[in-house]
Amino acid sequence: MDVLKKFDEVVVATGVTPRIPAIPGIDHPSVMSYAACVAEGRPAGKRVAVIGAGGIGVDVAEFLLNATSPTLDLAQWQQEWGVTDPSRSPGGLTRPFVEPSSREVYLLQRKDSGIGRGLGKTTGWVHRAALKAKGVQQLTGVNYERIDDDGLHLTFGEERSGARVLDVDTIVVCAGQESVDVLSHGLRAEGVTTHVIGGADVAVELDAKRAIRQGTEVAAAI
Ligand SMILES: Cc1cc2nc3c(=O)[nH]c(=O)nc-3n(C[C@H](O)[C@H](O)[C@H](O)COP(=O)(O)OP(=O)(O)OC[C@H]3O[C@@H](n4cnc5c(N)ncnc54)[C@H](O)[C@@H]3O)c2cc1C
Question: Average pLDDT in the 14-23 region?
Fold first, then answer.
């Protein structure tokens, strides 16, 4: 804070922290946030439930399904999507073959609409196809009742019917984000002109474009 007080203007772009929903048993050792899973490299077990099927939930499910990213391995990518050099096969098409995942992954959402509907128009179909090809079990309209040593307890719909326990050893929470902004209040109190941008400003949806636009506009204006 003392270092920042010396500047004429400060841009706070400290991003977000994963939102942890108030599910009974959420502090069970089987539970981790998406950040712990993808950024901190906390190991996941063989049977995983992903809570929340927005953009991050879909990305995390795909991350858990593949030991290496197929987009970094041309041969694997071609095999999975059934494409090859046109000199090898008419039209450059072959029969797709998708290696089964070594993990069993459940992707869950509270809404009862189809999973992945809110993904980008030009890329959403790729993610939906990849989840289907790898056999991800997609459950919608779920209520998260509790988490314990037996796994994740679910019911379905407003009537909370169809009680079911997912016998999973890992639960990854992808249930939104909360802004991280521990700086702007103190800086403004010290009279420093402070701009809050990106996830630190609004954390409701994944939108790098908005963060970049805000940063560009602030930079151009000061
Ligand atoms: C798995 C995943 C997939 C995503 N996919 C997409 C996508 O397809 N399309 C899209 O538009 N968006 C996507 N996003 C969201 C996108 O990453 C964010 O919208 C974007 O990064 C927001 O930028 P930001 O600058 O606000 O925060 P960030 O990029 O999160 O940067 C914040 C930085 O501030 C640092 N920091 C935090 N606190 C402090 C502090 N006190 N002092 C100093 N530094 C600090 C952090 O370490 C971090 O480096 C995805 C996010 C995740 C997690």
Answer: 96
**Res. 206: pLDDT tops 80:** no
pLDDT at residue 159, as a whole number: 97
Mean pLDDT (the chain) is 95
Q: Is the CB of 199 under 6 A from ligand 1?
A: yes
Distance 180 CA to ligand 1 centre (A): 10
Residue 1 tokens, joined: 């804070």
Boundaries of every domain in the chain: 4-15+179-221, 21-66+101-175
Residue 158: closest CA among 112, 107, 117: 112
For residue 166, what are its two tokens? 């997912």
Question: Regarding the domain delimited by 21-66+101-175, which CATH topology (the fold level of the hierarchy) does it fall under?
Answer: FAD/NAD(P)-binding domain (3.50.50)
- pLDDT of 24 higher than 90: yes
pTM for this prediction: 0.92
Residues 51 and 175 sit within 8 Å (Cβ to Cβ) = yes
Query: From CA 201, how far away is CA 197, in angstroms rounded?
Result: 5
Does the pLDDT of residue 118 top 90, yes or no? no
Fold of 4-15+179-221: Rossmann fold (3.40.50)
Expressed in angstroms and rounded, the spacing between residue 33 Cα and the centre of ligand 1 is 15
Sign of CA dihedral 128, 134, 139, 144: negative
